[in-house]
Specification:
Number of helices: 15
Helix content: 25-40%
CATH superfamily of the largest domain: Cupredoxins -  blue copper proteins
Radius of gyration: 36 Å
Largest sheet: 8 strands, mixed
CATH class of the largest domain: Mainly Beta
Number of domains: 2
Number of strands: 27
Amino acid sequence: MHSLLLLPIDYFLAAWFALTAACTLYVAIDGYKNPEPVVMKWGFILVTLYTGPFGLLLYVIADKEPRPGAHEQFVRPQWKQGVGSTIHCVAGDATGIILAAVIVAWMGLPMWLDLIVEYLAGFAFGLFIFQSLFMKEMMGGSYWENVRRSFFPEFISMNFMMAGMAPVMSFLMMGHDMRAMVPTELIFWGVMSLGVMAGFATAYPSNVWMVAQGLKHGLMTERKVGIQPEKSESAESTERGAHHPHHDHNGHADATEETAPSDAIASHAVGHAASMHMHATPEATSAQIAAFSLTSLVLLATGMLAPANWVNMGLSAHEVGGLIMPPGMLMFRDTTAEAMREMSFADSRLVRARFPIDVRGDRELPFTMDDGVKVFELTASVIRWSILPDVAVDAYAYNQQIPGPRIHIREGDRVRIRVRNDLPEGTTVHWHGLILPNAMDGPSEITQPPIPPGGYFDYAFTAHQHGTYFYHPHAEPDRSQALGLYGALIIDPATPAKEVPADQEYVMQLQEWLWREGLTFPAMPMDGMQPNYFTINGKSFPSTDTIRMKLGETLKVRFVGTNNGFIHPMHIHGGPFEVVARDGETLAESARYLADTVNVGPGQRYDVIWTARRRGKWLIHCHIPHHTSNDNTETKGGGGLMAIIEVE
């Protein structure tokens, strides 16, 4: 079971929903004795369930009877009547919308169709169930008569509500955290809650107007006979008059007032009696209703269509649900699902193992012999790898280490390497720079299908070369290699004399990382994807290795361009080095040259020989200053692509 608590917003939402549960429980218990129709009790319960403390606030300030017998006068103000009408609207419409959102997410419908289905479901639930069915007794008449009378008020109210909800859902679900498209994630329900609040805000003004015009009911009082309502000053003065008309909130008088039998329930609606309010001829003209309907349609169209200018509404929860994009990543309406999956985070909930800062990668991979063939095993999986004492990246790794284990063989060896895939996506392995059978080369969908999650593939070839090589994925390498899938492949010459000798040897594999807000994204040379951490053999300075030498010794550094999309000019202090090999090919003595910096691009390798001419601490580092920092800061004199050669 994956944890739902991944980001700070998840902890906030967990607390929010706990508070929402408490608020809903209070409204349900207190509303039980509040003198109003059952449909309004449920309205406030549902709205509080969807909006938490905001629903509780509306209930307390607009509907909760402040003292016995005072409900009629308490809910009399026009703004409270508008609240009641909007509560009734939102409770029904939002329920239909949320149910539809869950279903269409499960079905995998595109976002544009999702919104249409949600609108139709919300309108249908509000009109046919919450309005016409639940209000049937108060409205009187047949069910279909109530549908006809309620159509335009529900249509106008629903349009205004969806005009507020649609852009909130579109921008937040299709924003950087697309877990919001998945109903099993807390943030999905957080977006629904925020959308309902926005919908309430946009629907409220229209409901105030419709209540005032007699098109919709507002808050109502329903109490058993024997509990007398509190009389206002105006009511007392009326009783002293010649007759006793009922006054609504606009000062209009009804000609008659019926008295219910002693065993009946009397319904009193502030402003209008419930039955009067639904049967009386509305004060709104046809032109006003038409203008309101047109305006609501314009706002609805704007809310539904405007997000398509900025986000790709053709995507579905099945395609991108659950992805989280880098905070600075810019996405557009033509950004595809494939691109989003490439740029998304390494899912922390898939981490198989965690490793502290003292665990090193690039450990030599053991093998077994099978009829003269060296047999190796590599397994790709998701791990959490410490690059600094306080920074751990979620990474893709071979054999749970970064870099992956070093494969060390000899020219002429026959090898078989079984690659198992425990990643959430397909993968392959390319043996960079090697001459081998085409079927073993590794490009996904060109020489082989990708190895599916849970599957494996056996690579078999004979090593015909010697020198510095490496291996990396060739299925979506801009993502998987950037997340840590790479390792050194060192091939010794069949004739030892062909090896350029040195007293010590150090393999240096370079990499970039994008780690933001506790999540790891594949670093890429594009806006919003630039790296902020850099590693040598899986560690950032000052956690990189210290190479210890004696005065006069020589050091062979094998620079390996496992870096994915950036060039690193690698420089060694303390005098020039001799470049003796490039891309696995040993240079003829006449072609070797002195330098103090080599540009190591992606895929390139350089073997250099450096001589310890002076005692002291000599740096080996990238000469791009940003690449020798950790998230733009320096620790103990540097960071990132920096290591120390200590000469005694």
